[in-house]
Amino acid sequence: MASVPSSSSSSPSQPKTRKKPGQNSSPAPPPQTKWRTGTQERLYSRRLVDALRATRDRTQVQESVGSRAVKEAADSALALTARGQSRWSRAILFGRNSCRRKLLVKAGGKIRRHRRKQHGVPPVAAEPGVLKEQKVKERLRKLGRLVPGCRKLPAATLLEEAADYVAALELQVRTMRALADALSAATVSAPEEEETAAVDPMAIAEQGS
Amino acid sequence: MSSRRSHSRHSNASRITEEEINELVSKLQMMLPDAPIRRNSRVSARKVLQETCSYIRSLHQEVDDLSEKLSELLASTDTDSAEAAILRSLLMQ
């Protein structure tokens, strides 16, 4: 889990042109490329849509979907797309499913009860020289608080998780933005067109001319 | 550079070398949106971490804003056009 791949920086990231059908193989691709494949985007958007639809069906009786529900659905979908291969995704998933407080108090995951900001002993592992500085340690701690479930990790693992998390968040933002654009386009044009009519003039306009 | 390991309680089970740490830090640095080509290992680890934190925070903020927008949109559109829009956005990728 904490292994650093030796061929990490072999090739620069080529968004959407690299298709990796089998990502379960042991050499893990670097986060930039891993999260930018078209496959991942499709996977995530599909999961996001399903999660949103499920959320909407659940709350249709009472009220409209709240923004927090949307965000939670998006986060869960993101964590699912990570397939539990990273710690933050597992932390998100476990936080949703079971009774949050009871289970995570034992695991010491992302519960905010144990918020020890300035306790005496900093979490130390075998750390090389550059990480011994105080400010670096502070930043690392900040980072650990931002990434879910990564508060007590050693530095290298935390850095890996952070890189993965950043790439995943970028994917999330991209997908949600595309979805919001598509929805707002639908909202604007909804009263005028029907479903079948919506597809044809667009297709004809793009290809016919 | 002497890597002091006098504090290591969990010993060298994972044996994280300084080089690996630096590699990870530079990997993070490359992911930041701030023209990473400019930086040729001149940025300190501290700064990279700081920028990573603020970047993650801004990404969180964007996700929140988008969630709000999406929830509003979902509330205002009826099911059929929402489904159509969703299908369209899926197909466009």
From TrEMBL, chain A:
An MF annotation (GO) of this entry: transcription cis-regulatory region binding
GO BP terms: regulation of DNA-templated transcription
Stretches with biased composition (Low complexity): 1-13
Transmembrane segments annotated in the record for this chain: none
Compartments where found: Nucleus
Annotated GO CC locations: nucleus
Keyword Transcription regulation: yes
Full protein name: Sequence-specific DNA binding transcription factor
Organism, as annotated: Rhynchospora pubera
Lineage, highest ranks first: Eukaryota, Viridiplantae, Streptophyta, Embryophyta, Tracheophyta
TrEMBL record, chain B:
Gene Ontology biological process terms, A to Z: regulation of DNA-templated transcription; regulation of growth
Pfam family, one: bHLH_ILI
GO molecular function, one term: protein dimerization activity
Sorted UniProt keywords: Growth regulation, Transcription, Transcription regulation
Protein name, per record: BHLH domain-containing protein
Source organism phylogeny: Eukaryota, Viridiplantae, Streptophyta, Embryophyta, Tracheophyta
BHLH domain span: 5-59
Family membership: Belongs to the bHLH protein family.
Claim: Transcription is one of the keywords in the record: yes
InterPro entries (alphabetical): bHLH_dom, HLH_DNA-bd_sf, PRE
Domain of life of the native organism: Eukaryota
